[in-house]
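Entry 14. Structure prediction run on the chain below.
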Amino acid sequence: MGLWLVIALARLVVVGIVAAIGVYLSASLFQALTPRVDVWDEIARGNAAVGAVLAGVIFGVALVIYPVVSVPLEGLDLGPGEAAVVLLIEGLRLLFGVGVGALAVILSAGLYNLMTGPIDEKLELQRGNVAVGLVEAGMVVGTALLLSAPAASLVRSVLQALVG
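Output returned:
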């Protein structure tokens, strides 16, 4: 019982660190997708449209990663020496999950923007068009929700193939 308490606390710390990395990666990828828009400058100016999309990207990546994080470890038969290995695998699984989640959300958002035709979303976001920002945020969150199960399955399959 005591070992699982330590593992649970350590997992909380690992997930917290990876969550911070995920948020940073999400913001960085959003910035990379919108090179004409200085995301942090727009946020500092109070541009609600850019803020809505950034919030959508962060929520979207979290939605994709959630199933990866929610896998219980308590079913594993661990000896004291295996706890560190499990936490290392957990950290790697989460980092891989962040990468898969962010990439899936960003690629889907890019494809969506290609299909919207004459609307220049980046220009509209820079102008502060909140309607465009809300639609973009909704698209990212909706897409992420649909991608969460396949992304989690991919992460589990890759790690099972690597770890055995």
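The mean pLDDT is 79.
Filed with the rest of this week's runs.
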